[in-house]
Design goal:
The structure is a homodimer. Chain A has a single domain, classed as Jelly Rolls. Helix content of chain A is 49%, strand content 24%. Chain A has helices at residues 3-10, 17-24, 82-87, 108-117, 119-145, 148-158, 160-165, 168-175, 179-186, and strands at 27-32, 37-39, 47-53, 55-61, 67-74, 78-79, 94-97, 101-107. In chain A, the strands form two sheets. A four-stranded antiparallel sheet of chain A has the order 1-8-3-6. In chain A, strands 2-7-4-5 form a four-stranded antiparallel sheet. In chain A, α4 (108-117) packs across α5 (119-145) and α8 (168-175) packs across α9. The longest helix of chain A has 27 residues, at 119-145. The relative contact order of chain A is 0.15. Chain A binds a DNA duplex through α9. Chains A, B: It comes from Chryseosolibacter indicus.
DNA sequence: ACTTTTGTGTGACGTATGTCACACCATTAA
DNA sequence: TTAATGGTGTGACATACGTCACACAAAAGT
């Protein structure tokens, strides 16, 4: 199985060959084409996804059919509708591919099994979750504190790669601005 | 030590008397008066706080002296500047008391020690962090999807207690709206 | 090769919300 | 008792941003 996953774990905790081999049996590789859905609103969410290759977005679409992007995920990112995943409810988000993408799927059962069996893994996921929490707090601050231009610029700074790979329409929807406003900012 | 903390842990994982007794030696009780700071911008943040009694706010103040509230915390809530705490940097947030409050302090060292020694505790904090993450995602969606009125109403629904204990000026600053706009909403 | 879809710019206009100003009351401190 | 502080309402006005409309080009699908 992908050495990418191992490297990813080992940024936080070292693993023996056996340990990693054991861990990797709990993941399932899958491929998706552009426009395919990893998670679809209204249906259960058995898996969390670790992106090996490609690019996806996680988004919420409201009653007026306006889409708000919660997250992009490219190589080495995790993505899911975590609310639905952890609470075993139906998804309220969609996760779909902006490019052809390859992922490793981790079912909730396998995740909890690994966490229970290997303290290291529980530690890993705690650390991941902590960082995620902090990042979201930053995002909230940026939504409250900065105007469209400020958010646009700090996105550009923090995610130059995404900025190139993602259409601006979607970046607008990630930043919480209309497509038109974003367009006027860059000109 | 406070049975409140034990109950709080046991919502997620059962503990023996000895276990809890051991755990509790890692916490330090402290009392603060209204207007005192638990965390102050620019200084290190050695502790995370579990609120036993009282009410605090965690906020960011920008260059124009505008305050944005990231979180309120009352009984049974955890509060901190987690970015500074986990990364051992200086605080960018302030945490201060809206009421006289009693907390249990958990240093980063003790937290990591407990997590390493007791798998249960690492599990506890992973679960906590996961829920926190999900809650912040919801908040982001609400900032992007709802207008002032919508956010105000869902805050009222979700936190009727806070609504009573917290001045509306501060609720406004939590919701990302001006004091005046919020005032006009309720009338 | 043709059509459809996707991405992007730009003008005109409406509106939700911010800002500034002032007034009033309740509470706390001196 | 007075003064200072904190919380709230409300009017007048400014503005950032959304919405709708149209145009055009590039990419994708047939």
């Amino acid at each position: 199985m992908s050495p990418q996953l191992r490297q990813h774990f080992e940024k936080i905790t070292p693993l023996s060959d056996q340990e990693f081999e054991y861990i990797s049996t709990h993941f399932v590789a899958k491929k998706f084409k552009k426009h395919q859905f990893l998670v679809q609103e209204g249906v259960p969410v058995p898996n969390d996804f670790f992106v090996i290759k490609g690019l996806v977005k996680a988004s919420f679409t409201n009653d007026e059919n306006k889409e708000h992007i919660l997250q992009f995920a490219m190589e080495d990112w995790w993505v899911c509708d975590y609310q639905a995943y952890f609470n075993k409810t139906n998804a309220t988000l969609n996760v779909d591919c902006l490019e052809d993408t390859e992922v490793l799927c981790l079912s909730l059962t396998n995740r909890e099994k690994l966490c229970a069996e290997l303290h290291k893994i529980e530690h890993f996921f705690r650390r991941k979750s902590n960082s995620g929490y902090i990042a979201l707090q930053q995002r909230i601050l940026s939504l409250m504190n900065s105007d469209a231009k400020g958010r646009y610029e700090s996105f550009l700074k923090q995610h130059p790669t995404l900025f190139q790979r993602v259409p601006k329409t979607l970046i607008a929807s990630y930043l919480g601005v209309s497509r038109e406003t974003l367009s006027r900012l860059s000109s």
